[in-house]
Amino acid sequence: MTGTDLTKPPRTPSEEDFAAVQASPQFQELRNRLRRFVFPMTALFLTWYLSYVLLGAYAHDFMATEVVGNVNVGLLLGLGQFLSTFVITACYVRFANKELDPRAAAIRNYLEGERA
């Protein structure tokens, strides 16, 4: 590779290129991997959040149960909501770095690269 190759702008894909890539098995695999992570994780988090809200609305005695000093179950479950958000984010970042980003980069390189 020469010095001029590094300054050359990437090829601009056409609408036909995007349509072809969208129909490709590589893109379908990328989309399927994303969905297999996002949908179950979303369902799990929404179930966890809805459970917390319902417990807060209907299980006052349970949520008011003191665990240590003035710290009760409701407070711990509320803090658990924040913790679970950070855990899910960390899991997604790890998943994306390992599974999604390499595939997306390959597709982008194909679209922006020189093709005959």
Automatic annotation (TrEMBL):
<feature type="transmembrane region" description="Helical">
    <location>
        <begin position="71"/>
        <end position="93"/>
    </location>
</feature>
<keyword id="KW-0472">Membrane</keyword>
<protein>
    <submittedName>
        <fullName>DUF485 domain-containing protein</fullName>
    </submittedName>
</protein>
<keyword id="KW-1133">Transmembrane helix</keyword>
<feature type="region of interest" description="Disordered">
    <location>
        <begin position="1"/>
        <end position="20"/>
    </location>
</feature>
<keyword id="KW-0812">Transmembrane</keyword>
<dbReference type="Pfam" id="PF04341">
    <property type="entry name" value="DUF485"/>
</dbReference>
<dbReference type="InterPro" id="IPR007436">
    <property type="entry name" value="DUF485"/>
</dbReference>
<feature type="transmembrane region" description="Helical">
    <location>
        <begin position="37"/>
        <end position="59"/>
    </location>
</feature>
